[in-house]
User: Fold this.
Amino acid sequence: MGETLLLAAGGTGGHLFPAEALASELARRGHVVELATDERADKYGRAFPARAVNIVASATFKSRNPLALLRTVFALAHGTWQAWRLMGRIRPKAVIGFGGYPTFPPLLAAQLRGIPTILHEQNAVMGRANRALAARVSRIALSFPATGLMGGFASKATVTGNPVRDMVISAARVPFDPPTPDGVFKLLVFGGSQGARFFAEVLPPAIEALAPELRARLSIVHQARPEDLVAVRLGYRRIGVAAEVEPFFIDLPARIAASHLVVCRSGASSVTELAVIGRPAILVPLPGALDQDQAANAAHLEAAGGAWTIRQSELSSARLADELTKAMTDPEQLAEAAAAARAAGRPDAVARLADLVEAVAARR
Assistant:
């Protein structure tokens, strides 16, 4: 008979997607899974594969204002009390955190109750919430071998890779089909929850700057913020380019598999899915991040030969038009990058992480 296991994740795709992958794998192995998260988790259009989704209070330290700090501390304390009661009710054999401040109350409550805890770090740089918890967890699972660990953390770290959802594994079965010199060129653009606005501004002018014969070959799928949809659609329509523009694509992995080139940010899930599916990409790390985690993620895939990294400050519409021209006129380069990306992927990451979870839960 399986064990009861609690997953904790912030309500963004970067945290929820690997948690979803692990939940599905643990369920296949006969375990009962519940999720602790925040109220943002319901915006991804799919039910999380768990017996129950528990909303736990949390907050992020964003301001030095004493009143704001007090509110944050109160929210985290309230969330820890909620999580404490949740642990008493479901009695999990282990709690697995995927980052973001909503993981803080469940993991702290588990540690206070003596329940084994595991942290999974998606990025090549450990996040602040995970760093705050790392000293007291039982084990740490890493996506990238180069993730820096301070103090004595390295002794309890294992490189598992970043788990991907079942739909990513399905998409990875689609082989890369390089574009023909005169055929349709499929371009996919997405920016993640924080970084989509820049692409909404730079993409249509870049496409307009292409040579007419190249522009005529394009078929674009562009994920844009709801507030940018009308402007982006009109921008593509004005220059006569076929473009599907939506705020969210539930089947994004299939869209990645169908593309010849991807232009996107370099969040951990994006980089991981590009590698597992095996598609070439122009990566534009989100600027201004305190830890520059997206830059580190992009550097990993670029070093493997599967992507090209361009800083946002250096990516004008004219520069992007030049990069697209190179890609559209050199299908062999795209095929080589696709193969290199696939070689860097870890499709077995979810099995590795599930093995670690079972081992830790069994030692309780």
